[in-house]
Amino acid sequence: MTTEFFKYQGAGNDFIMIDDRNLTFTAKQEQIASLCDRRFGIGADGLILLRNDPGYDFRMVYFNADGAEGSMCGNGGRCAVRFARDLGMVGDFTRFIAVDGEHTAELNDQVVRLGMSDVNGIETLEDHYFTNTGSPHYVAFVTSVDETDVVGIGKAVRYGPVYGPEGGTNVNFAQVIEKDYLKVRTYERGVEDETLACGTGVTACALVAAECFGWEGPVAVRVPGGMLSVEFIRGTEPGNFRDIYLTGPAEFVFSGAV
Ligand SMILES: N[C@@H](CCC[C@H](N)C(=O)O)C(=O)O
Question: Could you name the active-site residues (predicted)?
Fold first, then answer.
């Protein structure tokens, strides 16, 4: 039996999208990893299933490129919304459910503004910050992201003694360009490499910068694959944020069958 797939990308973070409303997708971890393989498969940072869910427009089920089901993926969520509209399932506004709970999103042509989960705390550690924006994120400020060994340091932190035993973390490096403007590079857990953009990572960096520097946003973030923007409202407690929105492009690339 063949499976029809659709490839989407959001700021260069790319995903295999599958319409699984009839629950026929049965691939296991190893097969999903093969589909995401850039030499032997379709190639992607992750695979997303769109399924029915009572009470929502759809359910997003996300797998990292290693084939394991992941925590929330911000760019994947934006691409899932675009895919749902291309399938005629939703209009310019949608409400869907993902692993971290309910999300809303608005579409404006190729741009998707995705509501993210509230953030309930930022930990300040010796040389970095840590927060959870639906996925866990280590954030370190650097003077130049271009001169940072993202993969080398990323791997050491992801598998290191602090985060490794707890399931690992995504690792972000942020450079302040000016007020409300960051440049970010991310080592992604589950891809085990740098990706061209990470939505939950960019959100984490913007909120950490807002907390550290008193920014009110929106924070513009340049990533290797393009530009993203993060809006938020500060909560009453330090490190708490609500009404967080991640905005950027989400585009169809190609489709096929495997
Ligand atoms: N690319 C994602 C992040 C996906 C989750 C991550 N790889 C993890 O397992 O924690 C994004 O855009 O947020």
Answer: 73, 198
